[in-house]
Amino acid sequence: MNSTVVVIGTGNIGTRHLQAILKCEEPCDIYAVETSLAAQNKARETLGTLCQRVFFCDSISKLPEMLDVVVVAVSSKARRQVTEELLEHRTVRYLILEKVLFPQVEDYIAVQHLLKQTGTKAWVNCVRRSWPYTRRLQDLFSQSKQVSMKVNGNMWGLACNTIHFVDWLSAIMRVNEKPTFDISQLDDEILESKRCGYVEFSGTLLATLGANTLQLISREGIRGGLSTTLESECVTCHIEEMGDRGENSIYNRITGEIITENFECPYQSNLTNRIVSELLTKGTCALVEYDQSMEQHIPMIQAFLKKMGATDGYCNIT
């Protein structure tokens, strides 16, 4: 029997999920839910002839009753409402939620309760944790007591991508701690995001994760590659990312040895199929589980709300 896999929201990221799911080796019936006909048509155009394998519809009510894997790829403002509608009217085995999860702290608690009530297992799409090369980084820093991570680039979406690096550092160091944030070095100006109705930040954001520290720097300028430095008492890694490829220069601080490794930074269109396959065959996957990601998200949302001076508790970041 075919598994039923659904993507809700066929904007840019939702379409990338569909492109990947179409590569799954497991037999699947693939559904896409999108209320906007224009977004549906754009997704069909991007998928080309492969769109014939996708059942497009405009409502969750038109989905089968039993769903194996659902990816919720709508924006953060709509994500709680869509998730609630989905779980209240359909039985879902495995759920993948896009980040930033939700704009209000209360949303995180409400969805957590609903997941427990329905027995749905949920993960958050912080993809770096699932990269094959992350296992190599875990090995490199396995003897390190603490790591400092520094991420540097131009206009790379600091606000919407902070959670990626918090989760990546958490995965590399195998820690499950609530982060703390220091917003004092963010630039004063709050920027408009490339996504309508949302905001972005530039400047420097500092965070701690247990004994580990994180420094995120986003400057004005032409967006290019991203540089990440990971440094401990044992090893230093300098990682340069460009597109779907990365290069890691590794300095062993004990032996003095320096080596360079190339690795893959998979695009979403080559990654979701791996995640879905893991879920269908193993019942789990390499992404971060909802409860852990919630504990990472909430302090971040609270820090960003303080930066925005938002009195309504509504953080417009997606």
Keywords:
single chain, 318 residues, alpha/beta, Rossmann fold, Dihydrodipicolinate Reductase, domain 2, 8-stranded mixed beta sheet, 7-stranded mixed beta sheet, 33% helix, globular
Q: Can you give a write-up of this model?
A:
With about 325 residues, the protein is of the alpha/beta class. It has two domains: about 140 residues, NAD(P)-binding Rossmann-like Domain (Rossmann fold, 3-Layer(aba) Sandwich), CATH 3.40.50.720; about 130 residues, Dihydrodipicolinate Reductase, domain 2, CATH 3.30.360. The protein has eight helices and 17 strands. The chain has an eight-stranded mixed sheet, covered by helices on one side. A seven-stranded mixed sheet has the order 3-2-1-4-5-6-17, with helices on both faces. A two-stranded antiparallel ribbon has the order 9-10. A hairpin with a 6-residue loop joins strand 9 and strand 10. Helix 1 packs across helix 7 and helix 3 packs parallel to helix 4. The protein is globular and about 60 Å long.
